[in-house]
Amino acid sequence: MKNVYAAAQDPSFSRSSLRSINGESRTREPNIEKVAQEFESYLIFTMLKELEKTTNSSKKGSTEQTYTSLLYEKVGDYIAKKGIGIRDMLTKHMEKKY
């Protein structure tokens, strides 16, 4: 199992999303809206991490980096629940294929 620092540095989709894409897709359609929301959350997280690079902040310790990454992840989740339009666009596009 990855430690928290490694997980914060290399975030991935949640286990439930991977399960819905890999294992459950054989028996039924994946939950497209949930996967699209998690993609939107990950995109927002990545944007926040890149935005942080533009600031002139001093070097952070590993604990502070981990906390900041977890904070960005939760902010990404919160914003994605409200939606910025990417989830809707992906959902409409993927529903055309099914």
Secondary-structure topology with pairs:
Blueprint: H1 4-9, H2 15-21, H3 32-53, H4 62-82, H5 86-97
Which descriptors would you attach to this protein?
single chain, mainly alpha, 98 residues, 0% strand
Descriptive notes:
Helix 3 (32-53) crosses helix 4 (62-82) and helix 3 runs antiparallel to helix 5. The chain is elongated and about 50 Å long. The termini are far apart. The protein is built from 5 helices and no strands. It has one domain (4-97). Mean pLDDT is 75; it is low at 1-11 and 13-21. It has helices at 4-9, 15-21, 32-53, 62-82, 86-97. The chain has 98 residues and is an all-alpha fold.
Number of helices: 5
Number of domains: 1
Q: State the distance separating the first and last CA atoms.
A: 35 Å
| Oligomer description | single chain
Nearest-integer average pLDDT: 75
The low-pLDDT segments are 1-11, 13-21
Number of strand segments = 0
Structural class: mainly alpha
* Fraction of residues in β-strands: under 5%
Quick summary of this structure?
The chain is mostly helical.
